[in-house]
């Protein structure tokens, strides 16, 4: 397949309506959009990403008032969250509408709904006028694409088009909140923090490992099914460190990379390094740094853990998963 490089929302919408796959930017990461009501097109998307078929996709809409194009019902708490945070980096898991293909939801009775806050994404969604399922634009298991060049590395020749827009600003994926049960439960941390959610819906909980959820995959209750699969992993070995790795031998640092928020003595010895000025910058640049580590074929990358504040919690989650655990 020859991938088209485009910069027109009309062209993107046209390809999606014809059953094609188009990578486009959102404020979190790039997504690969496909018509969520077209089961064959959705199947092509799983194939292009190499995504396990039991991992459901998020459906994107151009406006919160259009929730009924994907969901059968908007529980009161979901409406409160929608009014407070959408458009924005939040995905609400809601009872699904039959028109959404079951390939999208991996057979679940619920659907993830998100209204991205990005002018290009919203223009594409408005013009396409169909619900658009869009997973992060990367081969399954790899760090998510936050630049169109990263998307191209993973997906050129595998999808119909790539929108050549600027890098995404937030850099990690949306907060996923299950609103299909009694109280909202955060299934995946993101830029909208638990604190922010609790300010508008105090009973919002964080998912606790071992907790029984209503979502069942292959007979096993799990939280967000996505956590079953390896994710965000570079080819290099990942070493998570609490503090900068002072005292690493010259031989090791010469074949290693480092990223974090603190400079230290010995930093210059690392063949590739990046010290981010803020947690927001760290989140925005994290996946692209992992990709650069692989482009330059490093054996190892030392990753300094993010602090727990704000987006740091979500970044820590991705760091832990990049390390495979
Ligand atoms: O920021 C984002 O959310 C990006 C952009 C492109 O919008 N999308 C994204 O999609 O990260 P993806 O497919 O990489 O991750 C979707 C996550 C997975 O962890 C999946 O298991 C979860 O959302 N999810 C989707 N539908 C669900 C459902 N019905 N119930 C529970 N979890 C669901
Ligand atoms: Mg993903």
Average predicted local confidence, pLDDT:
93
**Overall number of domains:** 2
Radius of gyration from the alpha-carbon trace, in angstroms: 19 Å
CATH architecture of the largest domain: Alpha-Beta Complex
Which small-molecule species are bound to the chains here? threonylcarbamoyladenylate, magnesium ion
Instruction: Trace the largest sheet across and list its strands.
Output: 1-8-2-3-7-4-6-5-9-10-11
Main β sheet profile: 11 strands, mixed
Low-pLDDT stretches are 214-223
Q: What percent of residues are in strands?
A: 15-25%
Helical amount: 25-40%
The first-to-last residue Cα distance is 35 Å
Number of DSSP-assigned strands: 17
Question: How many DSSP helices?
Answer: 9
Query: Structural class per helix/strand content?
Result: alpha/beta
CATH class category label of the largest domain: Alpha Beta
